[in-house]
Amino acid sequence: MSAIASTAHNLHLTKPRAVLGATVMALVANLILWLIGLASGGSFEMTDQGKVASVAPGGVITLTVVPLLVGLSLAMLISLKWEPIIRIAQVVGAVFALGTIALTIAADFDAASTVTLALMHVVVAASVVVALEAVRRSPSN
Description:
Blueprint: H1 3-10, H2 15-39, E1 45-48, E2 51-54, H3 58-79, H4 85-99, H5 101-106, H6 111-137
Pfam family, one: DUF6069
Protein name: DUF6069 family protein
Transmembrane segments: 18-39, 59-78, 85-106, 112-135
């Protein structure tokens, strides 16, 4: 066996690696977007019940990590008994992540914050689809 084949065999994607990898990658991407949003003049503040509330960086971290960990873990657990859930979870996860952009637009964020937060939703949607597709294609599954 060649060194390349041996290395490729040892790098197979497990379900926990997919969940954690997608979550960490999305978090890093969203934190970078947050920094770009700050540099673009975004305040990441909105008015909630008459009080100014900031959604960053704590909100960015929480609203990236929690949905990905919960959603991907649930899909992976169900896929142990019913593998077709992976395709369904790709669609549902992407639709939820993209659909919640409407909530960001409805809030009274400034333009830079709104655009940046919307892009963060796209990152989460892409992470769901890519992670689940990687698991679906992995030979260990």
